[in-house]
Amino acid sequence: MVRLLHIEFIKLWNNRASKILIISYFVLLTSIALVAAIKFDIGPIQFHLADQGIFNFPYVWHFNTYIAALFKLFLAIVIVSMMSNEYSNKTIKQNLIDGLSKKEFILSKFLTVISFALISTIFVFVVSLILGLVYSDFNELPIIFSDLEFLLAFFLKLTGFFSFCLFLGILVKRSAFALGFLILWSIIEQIVFGILGWKFVSWETAKIIKGFFPLQSMSNLIKEPFSRLKAVQSIANEIGEQVILDYQVHWYEITIVLCWTAIFVYLSYALLKKRDL
Amino acid sequence: MEKILIVNHLTKNFGHLTAVKDLSFTIEKGNVYGILGPNGSGKSTTLGIVLNVVNRTKGDFAWFDGNTSTHEALKKVGAIIERPNFYPYMTAVQNLNLVCKIKEVPNTKIEEKLELVGLLDRKNSKFNTYSLGMKQRLAIASALLNDPEILILDEPTNGLDPQGIHQIREIIKKIASEGTTILLASHLLDEVEKVCSHVIILRKGEKLYSGRVDGMLASHGFFELRTENTKLLTDYLEKNASFGPIKVENGLVTAILKEEMDATALNKTLFAQGVVLSHLVKRKESLEEQFLTLTKNQAN
């Protein structure tokens, strides 16, 4: 396993474009911390974003994983090109001739995907922990370590998304087209949802069906945190009518994403196995 | 003899096209093999199948004793097919390091192999700055990193200039002289003739011949003779049962042998007959002549 990861590391780290993208991705992840510095101080209007409660435990886990996931496109480019470059340079052929099996080839790519997701998760965990410790109003241990399922969701979301990129890279063989296809696919999901809800089933059913689509299921894992923030604030301000918000990570959402991940990795392998190079 | 590769009734279809048809052959340790055939005769496809990059339709093949999986066996093989494929943004040393990792061999031999192919002084240049000849030589260095049991080369001199062709041939000869088994696919007959002891001849995916180069045709060779009195000579040769057809071209008489005959004996007999030769050569058909004869015979 270490050997396969090392092989992939050599390929990625010596590629300047990949290296720059990977570094900028992690710099951007860290830059979430900069949000804390957003501060307006114009006479009577004083606004300090960090004081708005976004870094309160356990809400910070939700907020930061959601924001951090927006940067995943950087790594998506790296992953799509690391796959399609093997085709355009024909190095995949040479790798196999040199004695790498097709299974090992896919495994080395998938392990890289897992590593990216894992490192990102650890990164987000550390950054959030520090931000929380500095700005959170609550610092009791049980509160700090509640809602950690958002980190698990973040990890699975990235793994699923990158596996999809991996599959597209193998399927399309050209990085630019594969990324185009990724965007096209996200539009297709919305169109199918629209047609279903408009013509065939009720909007509620269509929404449930949409939850099974690959990209939608990944985005469902971590719901947008902004309405929750407002809710938290309004509850603090006025005790009265409560908005019931479903912001939790559900086990069935996790299962759907895990299934898609398995499907994409298997399809990549099946495709490689079937093709003559 | 230790067997390195056994190919059994291999068939590959690309849609309706049959690229390789029921092909069987055996590669034994220590020999230098040539796979000969015109373009599109299935050479590269056959190599692609045994090298795990093309899926077979029917038949099978076994590396070494047949107990290792193909990809494990390939770690003991060195192969280059068609164009050299490396990561363009990596240097020679970085590329070779990667190959060592894949083949699971220590990277201690990189310098030695780069020296062998004459690229040591360019070892830290990026692959995309190399000329085609240098790329091809790097590919050979890479194939030799694991001191392979067999070296497989597919058209190694394709697209190179005469100097490049010469360099590659010298390297191949050097490797062959060290006792490494080599399988060389080519459509260049003189290339194969110069280095190979055995040939496998393919045409349209079918095997026409496999065996030793000199056993390709059941021929005893031929004499090239020249004398002042050509008429006397041809009369004698035509009467002699040891000779087949006689050809005269610009005074040069070519007599094809039907049975073994020594040049000294012929010279003696002819002198006794009053024919004094100014030119006497006993030759075997070149591989090219044999190849053409063979493919022509099969066509009829």
Written description of the protein model:
The complex is a heterodimer of chains A (277) and B (300). Chain A is mainly alpha-helical. In chain A, 73% of the residues lie in helices and 3% in strands. Chain A has one domain (2-274). Chain A contains 13 helices and 2 strands. In chain A, strands 1-2 form a two-stranded antiparallel ribbon. The mean pLDDT of chain A is 87. By secondary structure, chain B is α/β, with parallel strands linked by helices. Chain B folds into 2 domains: 3-215, Rossmann fold (3-Layer(aba) Sandwich); 222-283, 2-Layer Sandwich (Alpha-Beta Plaits). In chain B, helix 4 (110-116) packs across helix 5. The interface between A and B is medium-sized, with 26 and 33 residues.
Write the layout of secondary structure elements.
The complex is a heterodimer of chains A (277) and B (300).
Chain A: H1 2-13, H2 16-30, E1 39-42, E2 45-48, H3 59-69, H4 72-88, H5 91-97, H6 102-135, H7 141-144, H8 149-172, H9 175-200, H10 203-210, H11 214-221, H12 226-237, H13 251-274
Antiparallel strand pairs in A: 1-2
Helix pairs in contact in A: 1-6, 2-4, 3-6, 3-8, 4-8, 4-9, 6-8, 6-13, 8-9, 8-11, 8-13, 9-10, 11-13
Chain B: E1 3-14, E2 17-28, E3 32-36, H1 43-50, E4 58-63, H2 70-74, E5 77-80, H3 92-103, H4 110-116, H5 132-144, E6 150-154, H6 162-177, E7 181-186, H7 189-195, E8 198-203, E9 206-212, E10 222-227, H8 230-239, E11 243-249, E12 252-257, H9 263-272, E13 277-283, H10 287-299
Helix pairs in contact in B: 4-5
